[in-house]
Amino acid sequence: MTLPELPPDRTRWLALAIVMTAAFMDLVDVTIVNIAIPSIQRDAGASFGQIQWITAGYALAFAAGLITGGRLGDIHGRKRLFLIGVAGFTLASALCGFAANPEMLVASRILQGGMAAMMVPQVLSIVHATFPAHERGKVFGMFGAIVGLGAVSGPLLGALLTEWNILGLEWRPIFLINLPVGIAALLLGRRYISESKAPHALRLDLVGVALVTLGLLMLLYPLTRGRELGWPLWGYASMAGALAVLAVLVAYERRKAARDGSPLIEPSLFTVKSFAAGIAVQTVFGVALGIFFLVWTLYMQVGLGWTPLHAGLTGVPFSISVSVAAGVSVQKLVPRFGRKVLQAGALLMGLGVLLYIWESDRYGLSIASWQMALPLVVMGAGMGLIVAPLTDAVLSEVPREHAGSASGLINTVQQMGNALGLGLVSVVFYGVVDDSPAASGLGPAFVNGFQHALLWVAAVMAVIFLLMSALPKRPAQHLEAGGAEALLPAPEEEPELVH
């Protein structure tokens, strides 16, 4: 079949602007919420468990739906699923902004995560369908800039919107700001984005999705609620049962792969040593990030009593350091030093965490933002060296026919690890806060909890360093994206344009 000519430049670049705006909206939404968590807790009267689910619920729904969202786009059209995702994400944002109670906010965040899973996988596929290969390098470079801008602007935007208390709405504008952006993306997307489908799309694996979601829920719910309920016996039984559900998932996926070749998780991928190790790295890295970002926010705003804007500005050196190191790692360092760059990133991030613990212990409640700058820059540099080239390293030995499934799975397990890390906050942070002497006050208790949680993060970085030794010494291929494409699931097949 002869593909039709590409649309005129103006239409093509308008379509790119629309999908980039939607991707930016999702990236910012993750970081913007973290900075407002203490305000949500105070204003909405949310419990610590509900606070965890406001973030973990989004990550879980996003993770569970990512691969299925990509498959639905292959089958029914990437433009159609993108627009459905944008519409649903915008509606869910409105429900979050107008939530009457914490329960409604948690439910709306889960819906928002599910809609993001419909929207985000289509972005890369639409780019592949809209731009010829020789232009994609420039396009993915733009995505890299957008990712960096999202990392820097999300916390600051969240801090400003919360601090300004627009119309007395407290934290609600952090969600309501998505409404005009989403509506514009929906209206313009209908007109300027070309439809595309995969010519031989795989079938859906809804049973696999259900088993993954059930297993994670059985693990995460007791972790987030157990502390408040006194760690009941049913919680331990549920966590043990989660392992059984995941074992059933493995057996089912093997049978489905043999039967029709369209499992949610391709079992043969795990026979590739570098991929199996990379999946472990992505999962554990997600756990570390899930723990750190929530605990960090609570430490600054509740423990130290800082305003959202003060906390948001404190994080700027971290965000800039991540962006700069990510660009340098892909363009300069990885082609020359390979796997050593990733391992150096793990060591740097671990060193930054230990430095942060030392400074927090030394200065206590009187610590200033400028004193946090050095550990945050070191941590950010380490994280930047990891995040941009990691997906390339993990995928480098995967057979080409499974590249789409493998890329989707990498993104999925990172989100699952993030949700698990958020659930573990109950154990590694709140457990220490609860055990602190009542006479010491909330501030010192949160400082102790922060330091204890960061020790766990440092231990996780040591595990990541060891796991990275199983990655290829030098990736066999490098993504065009300069790191940005690595953040998005790849399409299952070369897209076919349709009218």
UniProtKB/TrEMBL annotation:
The chain crosses the membrane at residues 12-37, 49-69, 81-100, 106-127, 139-161, 173-189, 201-221, 233-253, 274-299, 311-329, 341-358, 370-395, 416-433, 453-471. The keyword Cell membrane applies. It is a multi-pass membrane protein. SUPFAM superfamilies: MFS general substrate transporter. Residues 15-477 form the Major facilitator superfamily (MFS) profile domain. InterPro entries: EmrB-like (IPR004638), MFS (IPR011701), MFS_dom (IPR020846), MFS_trans_sf (IPR036259). Keywords: Antibiotic resistance, Cell membrane, Membrane, Transmembrane, Transmembrane helix, Transport. Pfam families: MFS_1. It comes from the Bacteria. Its main location: membrane. PANTHER family: ACTINORHODIN TRANSPORTER-RELATED, MAJOR FACILITATOR SUPERFAMILY MULTIDRUG TRANSPORTER MFSC. This is MFS transporter. It comes from Streptomyces hyaluromycini. The lineage of its organism: Bacteria, Bacillati, Actinomycetota, Actinomycetes, Kitasatosporales.
